[in-house]
Amino acid sequence: MSGKTLRIAGVTRTFPATRQAGPTLALQPTDLTVAPGEFVAILGPSGCGKSTLLRIVAGLDRPTAGALSLDAAPIAGPGPDRGMVFQSYTLFPWLTVEQNIRFGLRERGVAEAEQRATAARFIARTGLRGFENHWPRQLSGGMQQRCALARALANDPEILLLDEPFGALDHQTRELMQELLLEIWEADRKTVLFVTHDIDEAVFLASRVLVMSARPGRIKAEVAVPLPYPRDWTVKTTPDFAALKARLMGEIREEVRKAAAG
Ligand code: ADP
Ligand code: MG
User: Fold this and answer.
1) 159 by DSSP, 3-state: which?
2) What pLDDT does residue 259 have?
3) What's the pLDDT score for residue 255?
4) Helix/strand/coil (H, E, C) string of 160-229?
5) 205 C-alpha vs ligand 2 centroid, how far in Å?
6) 114, 72 Cβ separation under 8 angstroms
């Protein structure tokens, strides 16, 4: 289990006005503490500020106000302690699967033999054996996301940040990827912050689900998911799963309606 606590205090993001439009308040003051080894899902309608929040935690964007830290260290930019996987395919197209997975290790000057060994380990764990020398364009969407996950894990981050990582995949592939991620998390218990608009996905994976309001986003509800781990797909057929889903649906429907109304 990783050992660092993520603290988000009063984090706000306003995007400045452009010639066409006024400023956009994307994220209202948000407070959140994520303990080591938690699997937290952030659930909310499209445009509510989920990616904005995650990008700020990743250090890819700065908050307008508020502060973030991982244990004692303030978050001021990207770092190897946070691994990110995006919805869109973000592998380096000029690198093979194996080279993509080694990228962060190479950047940090890790010895060649260790790079290879680490890459091989995550290639095996994500089911990419036999694809080491493929180019990203030769892979299906699901395989590309396996590789993106392996690339993030290879850096041994304190916390994994996943922004709708399976959102572009077909239903069956998506379910397989959820099971793969869960299996990895159950073994390593790395802290995960997982953004999704899919209620089933949030309940199946997370130990805690945070529901965001329509834009400007804020965390409007928090639902603990007391379903025991390890979980497999059969949990989705249980009454407890259905009850959690119904509760979250109620919360989300209200927000989706607000978002649709503008
Ligand atoms: P979500 O991920 O929940 O769909 P986002 O965080 O991407 O939502 O966006 C929240 C709001 O902030 C949206 O209204 C979006 O248009 C706006 N937004 C996001 N990024 C920018 C940006 N770089 N410049 C201006 N507005 C932005
Ligand atoms: Mg988004």
Assistant:
1) strand
2) 79
3) 84
4) EEEECCCCCCCHHHHHHHHHHHHHHHHHHCCEEEEEECCHHHHHHHCCEEEEECCCCECEEEEEECCCCC
5) 18
6) no
Can you tell me the distance from the alpha carbon of 155 to that of 240, in angstroms, rounded to the nearest whole number? 36
**Residue 2 pLDDT greater than 60, yes or no:** no
Q: Whose CA is nearest to atom 22 of ligand 1?
A: 15
To test the pocket of ligand 1, the residue of 52, 161, 195, 198 to mutate (highest count of ligand atoms within 8 Å of its CB) is 52
Amino acid present at 211: V
Distances 114 to 32, 85, 121 between C-alpha atoms, Å = 36, 23, 11
Residues with CB under 6 A from ligand 1: 15, 24, 26, 44, 46-52, 215
Q: What is the mean pLDDT of residues 36-59?
A: 96
pLDDT tens digits, one per residue of 163-221: 999 999 999 999 999 999 999 999 999 999 999 999 999 999 999 999 999 988 999 99
Residue 73: helix, strand or coil by DSSP? strand
The pLDDT > 70 percentage for the chain reads 99
The whole-angstrom separation of Cα 15 and Cα 2 is: 33
Expressed in angstroms and rounded, the spacing between residue 155 Cα and the centre of ligand 2 is 24
Q: What is the DSSP letter of 127?
A: T
Percent of the chain with pLDDT over 90: 91
Q: DSSP 3-state assignment of 76?
A: coil
Going from the Cα of 84 to the center of ligand 1, the distance in angstroms, rounded, reads: 18
CA of 60 to the centre of ligand 1 (A): 14
| Phi–psi pair at 20, nearest 5 degrees | -85, -30
Give residue 257's pLDDT. 85
The pLDDT value recorded for residue 77 is 95
* Residue 63 phi, psi (nearest 5): -70, 150
